[in-house]
Write a structure and sequence with these properties.
- The protein has 312 residues and is an alpha+beta fold.
- It has a single domain (8-306), classed as 2,3-Dihydroxybiphenyl 1,2-Dioxygenase, domain 1.
- The chain has 5 helices and 16 strands.
- It has helices at 18-28, 91-101, 165-174, 229-240, 300-306, and strands spanning 8-15, 32-39, 42-51, 60-65, 78-85, 109-111, 114-120, 126-131, 154-162, 179-184, 187-191, 200-205, 219-226, 250-251, 255-261, 267-275.
- The strands form 2 sheets. It has an 8-stranded mixed sheet. The protein has an 8-stranded mixed sheet with strand order 6-7-8-5-9-12-11-10, covered by helices on one side.
- Zinc ion is lined by residues 10, 12, 221, 223, 269.
Length: 312
């Protein structure tokens, strides 16, 4: 059996106000809230998942909101820019839409031969909308205010800022099966052919760049997908043999996963596709109720009293 890393599973970022975050990603950006649950390490805080209609791996941005967390700052050893894939011809309309929220939304420009629009979310987290160089056959969610012709199709790529490209590249190429596709100045683009979409990692090298600080408005971790539990175990073994320290494999209801810090400093996760976000809600119901893992159900009343209100 040939086990492969099939691109990005999800990206997880930290926000402050949950209400503001929800409105930005669902109403302005048009993603679907596909899961409302709690942070497993801090059940008094939410964990929200945004994605496409069915919350497929490769379309998911998950958010850990803490109302009182201070701001983080960008630097080396972390993921700094999330890119979403959008339909060809939609960037002008996106620019108009996003400028109403953030006047500093950039002009369209070219990145690695693709059209890119730069923006940031209400917590200052940078993101890009990209028209991919090849057709993205995924269907974006258009059940909200964003029409189908503009709808975000899912994740396109993630950009990491590193002091030394070679260190992180060693994991990407040596273990994850990515190859160096393009280099432009201090930016290197790594791609895997094990997935059609969400299959790009960009490394931006800043040899003297200060180390970033992960808190509000920054990426918490980058999650890569594998198609089975067995593949997780295989990759965990391969990473252990590199001398990396890795968390135990854990069942987190929607997938099994483990974490490790890649040599460049960013937190990586490997996650299985199954069982997926529809394990405890139908496609129609996704995101409509607060879902708790069985071990926290006994605390439901208490948690519902602690969690900040989130109005739809
Ligand atoms: Zn994760």
């Amino acid at each position: 059996m040939n086990y492969r890393i099939a691109g990005l599973h999800h990206i997880t970022a930290i926000a402050t106000s949950v209400q503001r975050n929800y409105e930005f990603y669902t109403k302005l950006l048009g993603l679907r809230l596909v899961k409302k649950t709690v942070n497993m390490d801090d059940p008094g805080a939410y964990h929200l998942y945004y994605g496409n209609k069915t919350g497929d791996p490769g379309t998911i941005l998950s958010i850990l909101p803490w109302e009182n967390i201070g701001p983080g700052y960008e630097g080396t050893g972390m993921a700094t820019e999330i890119s979403f894939s959008v339909p060809p011809g939609s960037l002008e309309a996106w620019k108009e839409r996003l400028q109403q929220f953030n006047p500093r939304t950039g002009d369209k420009n070219e990145g690695f031969g693709e059209e890119v629009l730069h923006c940031s979310d209400p917590d200052g987290l940078k993101f890009n909308l990209v028209v991919p160089g090849r057709e993205d056959a995924r269907q974006g969610w258009h059940g909200g205010e964003v029409p189908e012709a503009m709808a975000v199709k899912g994740l396109h790529s993630i950009s990491l800022m590193v002091q030394d490209t070679a260190q992180t590249a060693q994991i990407l190429t040596g273990i994850f099966g990515y190859t160096l596709a393009q280099r432009k100045g201090n930016k290197s683009r790594f791609v895997t052919d094990a997935a059609m979409d969400a299959n790009i990692i960009d490394l931006v090298e800043m040899p003297d760049g200060p180390i970033g600080y992960v808190a509000g408005g920054t990426v918490h971790h980058v999650s890569f997908r594998v198609n089975s539990d067995e593949a997780l175990t295989i990759f965990r073994g391969r990473l252990l043999s590199q001398g990396l320290s890795i968390t135990p494999k854990t069942d987190v209801t929607y997938f099994s996963s483990f974490y490790f810090r890649e040599p460049g400093g960013a937190l990586f996760e490997l996650a299985s596709d199954k069982p997926g976000l529809t394990v405890d809600e139908t496609v129609e119901e996704l995101g409509s109720q607060l879902k708790l893992p069985a071990r926290l159900e006994y605390m439901r009343n208490r948690l519902e009293g602690i969690l900040p209100p989130l109005s739809r």
